[in-house]
């Protein structure tokens, strides 16, 4: 089933600016992992010392991981399925590439299904923060009731409809425009919240928890494992999602530089989330935790005891909605684009099919236990395996020589020889290691 590379004009449109492309990528990368996982891991695995391996892995994965996904999308001029066909056609097995390409694509769809449910919970919290009910009622009881099976359909549906409407309104241009609004708003709101929290009493313990460097933890294998997993998944390297954004990337765009900036802004988002959450938790003498308990039960309890707590809660959950919607847009787009071109569907039809399927399946995992089990399976098995398959396809099946030519377009000078060595002999094995360790640890 050989396919030909699409011509550049086949892409419906392109990102219009370097900054717009970066914001779209940051919008995809910044999500729940930045907000409820990073702050806890920062303090739990060495404080300031954790940042050393984390930043090293962010740099590595940004340069050789994100760059490869952007480059293969721009090179093949189509999304996940077509890009894998393009890679495997080099060894005359495009049919195998097409079939295996469904694995990372299903990873994107699987995450989208569970993610839409979780962002629906955030919309519920935002609506209840607006009315004040979130701060005056028993947050644990209310959240437990809302996360019963079939308990959050209206909120869940709102999220899916918003994401689908944005994608139907435009492809690259629409994605770029919405991210130019939502991502700066996310950073501004979280920066404001971080400054506000700094004036709460007894926040010193929170800052100490996050930033006091426990250098001895750098000698612990688990610190490096958790930093590696956090960096990898934070950047949304799934072997699918970022490929479709590369499809809409202009040839003069400097991909390695754009990838580094994506990593920088993603890390900044995680740090702002940590500065807004952890000091506030410690200010009120509550132990930090990660996951839904922190966001939907612990934080509302804190907001209720803060000066202007309702306003703080509204801004916080609004910021999280922005992060969630921009990530969901990327997941839907990765799936819709592949279906659109593979099955010759109209764009609106592909988007509506993807959104409808996500909503339909998601209805059956609206319960907290069901959603957790679903996301564990997708993020521990499907997504990491898709990332491994992507890394092998890009750097070995297609080959670094051809990929390097695409990576160097827009660059002022050739990539150093070390780039290919690191990509092939460090990055690719690390993706395999992440897949294995994720199974052993029950998720990274």
CATH H-level superfamily: Amino acid/polyamine transporter I
CATH fold description: Amino acid/polyamine transporter I
Question: Can you tell me the residue ranges where pLDDT is under 50 for at least 5 consecutive residues?
Answer: 1-12
Question: Main beta sheet, described?
Answer: none
What would you say the CATH architecture is?
Up-down Bundle
Mean of residue pLDDT values = 88
Principal-axes geometry comes out as: globular
Computed structural class: mainly alpha
According to DSSP, the number of beta strands is: 0
What features would you describe in this structure?
With 444 residues, the chain is an all-alpha fold. It has a single domain, classed as Amino acid/polyamine transporter I (Up-down Bundle), CATH 1.20.1740.10. Helices cover 77% and strands 0% of the residues. It has 18 helices and no strands. The protein has helices spanning 18-29, 32-44, 51-76, 80-89, 94-131, 133-136, 139-146, 153-168, 172-198, 204-211, 221-234, 241-247, 255-283, 292-305, 309-342, 347-363, 368-408, 417-441. The model is unreliable at 1-12 (pLDDT under 50).
Feature tags:
disordered N terminus
Write the layout of secondary structure elements.
Elements: H1 18-29, H2 32-44, H3 51-76, H4 80-89, H5 94-131, H6 133-136, H7 139-146, H8 153-168, H9 172-198, H10 204-211, H11 221-234, H12 241-247, H13 255-283, H14 292-305, H15 309-342, H16 347-363, H17 368-408, H18 417-441
Helix pairs in contact: 1-9, 1-13, 1-15, 2-10, 2-11, 2-13, 3-4, 3-11, 3-12, 3-13, 3-17, 3-18, 4-5, 4-17, 5-8, 5-15, 5-16, 5-17, 8-15, 8-16, 9-13, 9-15, 10-13, 12-15, 14-15, 15-16, 17-18
């Amino acid at each position: 089933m050989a396919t030909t590379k699409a011509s550049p004009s086949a892409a419906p449109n392109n990102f219009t600016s370097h900054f717009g492309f970066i914001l779209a990528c940051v919008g995809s990368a910044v999500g729940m992992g930045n907000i409820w996982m990073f702050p806890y891991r920062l303090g739990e695995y060495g404080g300031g010392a954790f940042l050393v391996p984390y930043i090293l892995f962010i740099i590595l994965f940004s340069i050789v991981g994100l760059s490869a996904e952007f480059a293969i999308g721009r090179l093949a001029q189509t999304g996940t399925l077509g890009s894998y066909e393009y890679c495997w056609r080099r060894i005359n097995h495009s049919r195998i590439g097409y079939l295996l390409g469904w694995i990372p694509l299903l990873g994107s769809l699987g995450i989208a299904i569970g993610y839409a449910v979780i962002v629906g919970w955030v919309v519920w919290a935002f609506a209840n923060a607006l009315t004040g009910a979130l701060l005056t009622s028993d947050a644990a009881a209310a959240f437990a009731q809302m996360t019963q099976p079939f308990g959050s359909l209206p909120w869940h549906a709102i999220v899916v409809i918003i994401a689908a409407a944005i994608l139907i309104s435009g492809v690259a241009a629409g994605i770029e425009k919405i991210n130019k609004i939502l991502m700066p708003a996310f950073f501004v709101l979280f920066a404001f919240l971080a400054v506000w929290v700094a004036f709460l009493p007894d926040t010193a313990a929170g800052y100490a928890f996050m930033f006091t460097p426990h250098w001895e933890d750098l000698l612990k294998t688990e610190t490096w494992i958790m930093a590696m997993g956090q960096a990898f998944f934070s950047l949304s390297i799934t072997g699918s999602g970022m490929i479709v954004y590369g499809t809409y990337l202009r040839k003069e765009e400097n991909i390695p530089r754009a990838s580094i900036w994506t990593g920088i802004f993603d890390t900044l988002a995680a740090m702002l989330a940590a500065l807004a959450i952890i000091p506030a938790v410690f200010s009120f003498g509550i132990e930090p935790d990660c996951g839904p308990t922190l966001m939907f039960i612990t934080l509302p309890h804190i907001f209720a005891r803060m000066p202007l707590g309702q306003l703080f809660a509204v801004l916080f959950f609004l910021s999280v909605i922005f992060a969630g919607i921009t990530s969901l847009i990327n997941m839907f787009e990765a799936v819709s684009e592949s279906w659109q071109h593979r099955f010759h569907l109209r764009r609106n039809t592909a988007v509506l099919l993807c959104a409808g399927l996500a909503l339909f399946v998601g209805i059956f995992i609206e319960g907290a236990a069901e959603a957790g089990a679903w996301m564990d399976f997708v993020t521990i098995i499907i997504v990491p395996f898709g990332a491994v398959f992507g890394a092998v396809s890009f750097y070995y099946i297609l080959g670094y020589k051809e990929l390097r030519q695409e990576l160097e377009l827009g660059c002022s000078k050739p990539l150093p020889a070390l780039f290919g060595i690191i990509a092939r002999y460090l990055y690719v094995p690390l993706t395999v290691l992440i897949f294995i360790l994720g199974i052993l640890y029950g998720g990274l």
